[in-house]
Predict the structure.
Amino acid sequence: MTQRSPEEYFRQHDFGSEAATGGGGEFTAAERAFMQKYLGVEEGDILRRIGIDPSRAGAAGAAADGAVGVPGIDDEAEALDARLRREPVLQMVGFFLGAQEFAVPTEAVQEVIKFSTPTRLPAAPSFVAGIVNLRGRVTPLVRLRELLDVPHGDDGGYGGGEGAGSAGGEDKFIIVCRRRGLQMGMMIERVHTMYRVPQQDIDWAIESHLGVSVDFVSGLLKAGERLVSIVSVDKILDCVLKR
């Protein structure tokens, strides 16, 4: 397994260009499902508040209640996690929440940006902090700490080891992912490093994993003596759209 600094990795990958593609235009089925579920009758006012033209919404109500059965949403269910298991070498973004390190596959990542205060959605569950306008797309921000059961000030049992975040730290960055038609931001404390991991250094059998909610973890990355939980972007997206 090799490691690179985030700066080295992002210099070699033009995430800004990728993230800019598809900005504006009509809403996707996933975006319409999200807006119908969480914006409701205030949709127009909320969209205008974040600088998006509500007329783009079209028939937002045409999306089925929730996300189940909406074309373009369920089509790729579990595709990413399944594909990762077949790749000989994987690239991951390592990041911290408190003293606990997690990783997310770069295949799902568009960019990492500084935290931006979202517009709150009264109808949304507590793990959805709100939405932001990122290059013309409705982008929900997810409180990853809450989904992964990592409280503020938690030391993760590591006692502030090498690379650990400071106890009680705030979420200062957003990992922007785009999957199945929805752009989503995961709130994190800070990026740690970039991993290039051979398949044999990943354990996909996570039933015995303790310390975080395994509902949103797809595997474990072996980084020296440590085990780093791999976050499943698809499972988080399912939770956002179907909760």
